Amino acid sequence: MKTCVIGGGLMGLALARRFARDGHTVTVLERAEQLGGLATWHDFGGFYWDRFYHVILPSDRHLIAFVDELGLTNHLEWQRTYTGFFVDDRMHSISSNLEFLRFPLLSLMSKARLAWTMLYCSRIDDWKSLEGVTVEDFLVRVSGRETYDKLWKPLLLAKLGPNYKRVSAVFIWSYIKRLFSARDKSASAEHLGHVNGGYKLIFEKLQADIAAAGGTIRGGVNVTAIRPQTGGGLTVSQDDFDEAFDQVVCTSPVSVLRQIAAQELVDVHGDREDVEYLGVVCVVIVSKAALVPYYVVNIADESIPFTGMIGMSTVINTKNTGGRYLTYLPKYVLSTDAELRRSDREIEQEFLAGVRKMLPNFDMSQIESVHVNRAFKVQPLQVLGYSSLVPQVKTKHKDFYVLNTSQFVNATLNNNEVIGAVNRFYDDYRQVSQQKAA
Ligand SMILES: Cc1cc2nc3c(=O)[nH]c(=O)nc-3n(C[C@H](O)[C@H](O)[C@H](O)COP(=O)(O)OP(=O)(O)OC[C@H]3O[C@@H](n4cnc5c(N)ncnc54)[C@H](O)[C@@H]3O)c2cc1C
Q1: Which protein residue's CA is at the shortest distance from atom 8 of ligand 1?
Q2: Beta-carbon count within 10 A of 138 CB
Q3: 174 to each of 41, 107, 135, 192, how far by Cα in Å?
Q4: How far apart are CA 174 and CA 190, in angstroms?
Q5: If pLDDT is split at 50, 70 and 90, which confidence band does 425 have?
Q6: Cβ distance 278 to 332 under 8 Å?
């Protein structure tokens, strides 16, 4: 069976590997020259690491099993990590229960309400009931105004930028469920993991497995149209070139699917203008000394131009990064925001001024290089009633399939969800194929 997978991100490649190992003649078509999509790597000068920061949580069971399936478990490493909080020109560590109890900004009552919020959210199963409430109203009601203003609001700003006001409570519910599972319950400590070699190693292994099973991966190929053929199968147009396949799986976002799939293949209900996406500007600092001892610093100071500080080298071994330290400075904005179109130089100067303000004692001459990365469509903004706005995709052709992250309605975007979705899709696919063959 000649199978085409459109998209060479983690979803497309994990799926292509499954098909190839089951005997399909697989071809992956990826628009970018380099594989990996949002999880791709970047040349930081002397070493490669993920373009955007990625960590693995102890609860990422699909992803951890997948790393094992790739034979990379011996590259998986875990680190105890720490969380910082920057407010009123001071950095606070809130990495243990004791530090949290000593955190001067919140009264004891507010701290108790925060602990209650975690417990309360972890017990909610009916996420749909949260879709009609803004995250702000929900957190003020459950945690109280003081905890909201001093703790939750900076966190929402870090994750969503100023758009947090329009987001529903489902966001914080899925965030708490995922993030707080990273805590080792016995030690009340947070542990995060990574694969030595980064996602580059994962993609190289995927590429090797697909090639070993007879598959082909082509980068720099922009798919412009998918049409049905008379008598079965599909034609995939790549710029000026047409190719025939027995079946096609498309992993690109719904906005791309609408443009490239013929009407006879798929019904997409819902107006795409309704779904707004978040993009990210992410400055990466390569330095000879660590900027902070925290994996994440939440920032409660609106004069700082970025929305969080990610001390990546508190998780990854500096063996991976030529002995250098990596710090990511993300700023989440709407995909239409002018911020995403500013020059690298302007962004770099502004963000470095923010670093000086936050860390006046850090010797800036330790910084070796600064890299400005951008992603325009990271994830949909989960506004009120988001699940009813998500375009409903229904394929109408027996040889055409769609699987992508645009359909995630009650989860944050992460690779555990991606691999879980690939597993479910492939199990269903195999079951239906076996029924047809019987
Ligand atoms: C700043 C940031 C931080 C993150 N942190 C984490 C983290 O800590 N942990 C975690 O698990 N996840 C994290 N993620 C999420 C993770 O990167 C995504 O879950 C994952 O990359 C999604 O993979 P995908 O294959 O579904 O989509 P994508 O990576 O978007 O891949 C889709 C691919 O399809 C290709 N394509 C689209 N249209 C066409 C076309 N017409 N023709 C050919 N090719 C096409 C695109 O070029 C792209 O390569 C983070 C993401 C970002 C941006």
Answers
A1: 54
A2: 21
A3: 27, 26, 12, 18
A4: 17
A5: very high
A6: yes
357, 304 Cβ separation under 8 angstroms: yes
Measured CA to CA, the distance from residue 177 to residue 184 in angstroms comes to 14
> Which domains are present in the chain?
2-56+198-272+388-437 (3.50.50.60)
What residues flank ligand 1, with Cβ below 6 Å?
Answer: 6-12, 29-32, 37-39, 52-55, 222-223, 251-252, 256, 260, 280, 282, 330, 375, 378, 405, 413-416, 418
pTM for this predicted structure? 0.92
Instruction: Determine the pLDDT at residue 29.
Output: 98
* Helix (H), strand (E) at residue 224: strand 223-228
Q: What is the token pair recorded at 272?
A: 């795409």
For residue 254 the two structure tokens come to: 């719904």
- Whose tokens are 């070493």? That residue is 47
Q: Over the stretch 47-85, which tens digit does the pLDDT of each residue have?
A: 999 999 999 999 899 999 999 999 999 999 999 999 999
SS3 393: strand
Per-residue model confidence (pLDDT) at position 99: 81
Which two tokens mark 420? 């879980």
**The predicted structure's pLDDT at residue 37:** 96
329 Cα: distance to centroid of ligand 1 (angstroms): 19
pLDDT in tens, 151-208: 898 888 878 888 899 999 999 998 887 766 555 444 456 789 999 999 999 999 999 9
